[in-house]
Amino acid sequence: MMRVKSARLRFGLVMAMLLVAAQAWGQGQRGAQAALDQLDRQLRTAEELLAGNDDPNLRGLLEQARQLRGRAASEMAAGRHGQAATHIATARRLLDQLTGRLLRNPVGQLGARLDEVLRQAEAVVPGSGPEAERLLAQARQQQRRAVEAAAQQRYQAAAEYYRVAIYLGRRALELAQSGGRAGNERVQEAREQYESLLAVAEQAVARSNDPLARRSLEQARRQGLLAQRTSQRGQPAMAMELYHQGIRLLLRCISLAEGQRPSLRERAEEEVERVGELMAEASREASRSPRPETQLLLQRGLGLLAQAQRDLDRGAFALALRNAELAEGIAYRLLRRSSLGEALALRAEEELARLQQDLEQARHRLAGQPAGEELLIQAARLERLAEAALEQGRHRLALVWLLAGTRLLAPALSAPEATTAPTAAVQRMEELDRALAEVQATAKVNDDTRVLVAQAQALRAAALQALQRQEPAMARGMVETALDLVAKAREPMEQ
Asked: DSSP label at 420?
């Protein structure tokens, strides 16, 4: 009997060790693949920078990096992820060296341009007004970051800091020279700069598919939409501020897409600073509102921003980012409440047109495929819910339905991704079940909550059918969309 128990114990220990080893292998595989993807983006950037340059030394560095990339891929295929990571790290160091040599002179030229802009600005900005002085101070701060980055041979980061500093310095100079007035002509110039950079950023993100770059692009688009509607409402000063913030986001987006990975500290510093400017604009607008709930919301946003700054000061950069993002959401809510409600309606109309276009494409692509019928049924139902919300003037609720529909259809309209394991879809479905139970037990019950939960349950049922048909990728997409709806059910729904 004791021998049997001992054998079972040894068997259990062996299985546990095998499970740990399998998990470690899987994590190593995912980490190596992510590093390889990042190396590919860096290679593309280096190839673009080197186009037309016949320097044999630089070409040699690029060729060495390519060879190391090939070795890394071979090691990964053989399951030797540690060796693959070593080759990838060496290749990235070579590419950093290559881009550093290529960008050293352009960075120096940007520094000289900034010096000239600051020299002109410092002659007229002091005493011209608080806004111009604030912009000049920000330009100097960006200059300090650029100098630090260049000293560390992070030339791409230095170039971005210099470009932002030049832009801020010119804004300060123009504002001081115009007596603080921001007319329609200047708004048009800012819009043209924004739209020009937007086209560049969209192409860069399409090439890299970097998630951080994509997020910055979406933030910039939101800024541009708000700026456009603000300008149409006859508020040029606010429109200028929103366009300028959008331009800064686009510059960040382009750098991320080109493979430049700022440190967590740099990201937190930039985000806290940017959200601080946005919150200042929201505060000015909210101060005109007599509604007590608006003032409470403002205080909450300011508190989150202050906490983000404290987190930054004590080195808690991840928390600083999170609190800055929460403060950003409140700033947008305040801006919508004050004067930009029409922007929400415009976005809802644009998202409706986008969903209808996606639905049409999906119908053609999935024609004759029984597996896609349920997906189209669910997406069409979300479209009808959105149209009903728009007819009632419920633009925020309409956007919930529209974005859910767009997300639901995205896998069917995009290139095939890596195979989704059935276990991953099942695990997310279990998370959905817990979330549904929690929201039904704790959320304030109203018509919005009931409809959101009901639609999430319908998507869960459809996902279960997809799993039974051995379609885990489709099931996963439905579950993820349902989780989004449950998250929205927890929030108070505004008009």
From this structure: P
412 near 453, Cβ under 8 Å? no
- Other CB atoms within a 10 A radius of the CB of residue 97 amount to 14
Write down the residue that tokens 């950093």 correspond to. Answer: 96
Q: How many CB atoms neighbour CB 218 within 10 A? A: 13
Reference 309, options 327, 330, 284, 282; nearest CA is 327
Separation between Cα atoms, residue 93 and residue 46, nearest integer Å = 12
CA dist 475 and 483 (Å) reads 12
Burial 229-261 (b: 16+ CB within 10 A, else e): bbbeeebbbbbbbbbbbbbbbbbbbbbbbbbbb
Both tokens of residue 234? 């006859």
CA angle 253, 206, 38 (to 5 degrees): 70
State the Cα–Cα distance between residues 427 and 408, nearest whole angstrom: 18
Residue 307: which of 285, 290, 292, 326 has the closest Cα? 326
- pLDDT by residue for the chain (495 residues), tens only, comes to 444 445 555 555 545 454 544 444 454 566 667 778 778 877 776 776 666 667 777 788 888 888 988 988 888 888 887 888 888 888 888 877 776 666 566 677 778 888 888 888 888 888 777 777 888 888 888 888 888 877 776 776 677 778 778 878 887 887 777 654 445 677 787 888 888 888 888 888 888 777 778 888 888 888 888 788 777 766 776 777 788 778 878 887 887 777 766 677 877 887 888 788 778 777 777 766 666 777 788 888 888 888 888 888 888 888 888 888 888 888 877 776 654 445 566 667 778 877 888 888 888 887 777 667 888 888 888 888 888 887 666 777 888 888 888 888 887 776 554 455 667 777 888 888 888 888 877 756 677 788 888 888 888 888 888 877 777 778 888 888 888 888 887 775 544
SS3 for 64? helix
Alpha carbons within 13 A on the beta-carbon side of 378: 30
In DSSP notation, 254-266 reads HHHHTT----HHH
Q: Return d(Cα 391, Cα 398) in angstroms, integer.
A: 9
CA distance 320 to 284: 24
Contact by Cβ (8 Å): 94, 65:
yes
Report the interhelical angle of 422-442 vs 472-489 (nearest 10°): 20
Cα(15)–Cα(142) distance, integer angstroms: 55
3-state secondary structure of 161: helix
Helix (H, G, I), strand (E, B) or coil at 84: helix
- Reported residue count of the chain is 495
For 410, residues 6+ apart whose C-beta sits below 8 A from its C-beta are: 358, 477
The predicted model scores a pTM of 0.36
φ and ψ of 55, to 5 deg:
-60, 115
Q: Would you state the structure tokens that stand for residue 125, as one six-digit string?
A: 């900005």
